[in-house]
Structure formats: C-alpha cells, structure tokens
Batch of 2 targets.
Target 1
Amino acid sequence: MPAFAVFEPPMRAGRPAARHTDRFVFLREKFSWAAFLFGPLWMVWRRLWLVLLLYLVVLGLIEFGLRRIGIGSEVRSIVFFLIALLVGLEAVSLRRWTLLRRGWRDRGIVIADDLDMAERRFFDSWSADSAMSAAPQRSHSPVSSVGVIGLFPEPGGGR
C-alpha cells in the first residue's frame, strides 16, 4: 500500500484551526517521473528555489570536474542520467525538506490506497486525538503518567 507523508502548514493569524485543515499537504512516497524527466522545470513548478540553485551548482561543478580530468561525453551522459534518476527517486524528500524549511510541521505517515482514503484516515485519527486531549484525564494509578519502557503495560505489572 502507498504511504503518504502529512504536513501541516503554519497557522495564519485570525484563522481557526478547523478552517486550517484545507491547507494540509499529503505527499505520496513514490518515484516522480516529472522530476526525473524535467528536473529543473519540475523544481520551478514546485517552487523549490533553493533545491534548484543547489542542483545547478552541483551539476556545474560535476561538469567542470569531469571535463577537467578528461572524461568523455558518453561517461558524462551516464553520470547526468544517474543524477536525474536520483532526483526522480528523491523528489518527495526534496519537497519534504522544503516544506520543513518553510515552517510546515510533519504530522506523520498515513498508509492508504489513494489520496482520498489517506485524508479520511488522517483526519479521523486527528479529530479523535484532539477530542481525547480536550477531555479531562483521570488517572486510576498513583504512579506518574510517564510511559513504561519494556514488556509490561503498567508500572509494577506482573511477570
């Protein structure tokens, strides 16, 4: 099943959290043919300006270095094909990095067949979590609410 990374945008001033959900981004973890075939144009389309700048600088340095040491055009073509393949494989990671750099928050991973199901699963879970956090917590145990590490669900539980 496909996996979707979920990102929450920075809150806009004066906008309630419930109206904020239409701006969430779900990135499907997959190979990007557009990034592979049209790398720089894909970066411009997605507004990945820093990624584009780094891509062009690295490509220029590699081209300069390969020409400097006398590598033939066939090998240079293979190297640039491999770089394009890498961009296609890492396209989602490049978008994720850009979103995080712009202040978006990573809200987790959702496993679903398609985008509609991923959105439904995420927001169902998200609304249930927010309802649970709004309800008052009652502890039946005198022990603090620090999680237990190990095999036993309760502190001092049987073996």
Target 2
Amino acid sequence: MEIIISRDVKQIGKLAGAAAAQAIRESISASGSANIILATGTSQFEVLKQLTIEPGVDWSKVVMFHLDEYIGIPITHPASFRKYLTERFITKVEGLRAAHLINGEADPHAECERLNKLLIDYPIAVALVGIGENGHLAFNDPPADFEVEDSYIVVTLDDDCKKQQLGEGWFNSIKEVPSKAISMSIKQIVKSQKIICSAPDARKAKAIKNTLEKPVSNLCPASILQTHRNCTIYLDTASASLLTSKEQFL
C-alpha cells in the first residue's frame, strides 16, 4: 500500500484522477478493456474532474460500475448517486461502452441479484473509493461483513453515516437520509486489481488513523485496504494529521 499526502486538496484529486486514467490505459493495453468502479461524495469531486479530462483514454473500451446507492431515492434527488455519476462522469466522457448504475428504486434484492450476475463477467481493473468518517468503505458501515460473497448487498446506514451525508449537504435534515442502501461488498471491492482511495478533509482524520495504523477490523471497514497488494491512498495534510508515522510519506 502506498500513501500520498499533499497540502493541496485539489492536487490530491488531480493525482488520484491521473493515476486512475493511467491504470485504465494499462488495462486496455494489456487486455483490450477496462472495467472500473466509481465512488461518489465530496471526496471524489476533483478525482472525477481530472479523470474525465485525461488524454488518451479509449472510453469505448471501458465499462463502469458504481459502489452504492440509496434505496428509495429517485435519480432526480440531489443526493442520488446515479445523478452524481451521470452529471460528473457519464456525460463528460465520449463513447463509454457501458455504465451499470444501481437502481435504488427497484426491488433491492432483485437489483442486487441483477448486478451480482452481471459483475461475474466483468473483473474489475480499477476501483475508485473513499473512506467515510466512521471508517466505512462504500456503505459498509461498522461492523461490516467481511465474509459475505455477494458482490452487492443491502445494508443499513448507521447514525454516523447519516450525519456525514447531512453534513456534506446532500439532505436538509437527518430524517431525510434513507436508512437502507445497496452497497458493493467488502470482498468484491478488494477483488479489484488496483484500488485508488481519495480521502481528504480533517473530519476524516480519525478514520484514516484507524484505517492505516490499527489492526484490520470490521469495526473500521476501510482497514481492509491494508491487505490489498495494489492500493494507493491519497490524503491531504488535514486527513493525515493524526497519523503518527506520516513523516515517512511526505
């Protein structure tokens, strides 16, 4: 695992987006295609902005999946991750081969089954992820299920997760935040050949410390990234502020 720290949040996004583009190019060169997972949230703004303007990516050979979606929210809702990815990625790249979005308005278990069957044919080359304030990875809140084999599962959002969604401005009140979501599972995420994790902001500092310096535990789901052989985590100095060994990464 590699850690990259910068004082400039925008620079972190640019570096992560450029790294993602390079990994996509390499996958296309090696196998003729690239299957990718995209995350959402404020941590991904600059990442996706950079990814969509990177030169030399043949998007006609790229298939996109995404990490998670609220259950019961229409695509027109400001918090919809389908809306987020449509506006910030799908409409920004030309000729994308396919975008497999999670339909949070469908029957949740049927939608998981549809996606689980689909993903069998698309091994993931590159996954873009973030880390939640509670240490979650996708919507796998603690204590996360590290053993479930299904690629997509129905999960319950904890109070800390809901507060983060409210704090980031996606909802007007905590009561508006859905209690359920469809999320890619931990096991599926770590199957990705390369993981690029962007997690800036001081409010992530405790989660980052637990992710990188505590033993791997489902009480901090993102700590599973310690076990991945090809994972790069991009931090700003604020999110890295509690790390005891951050000097070695600067």
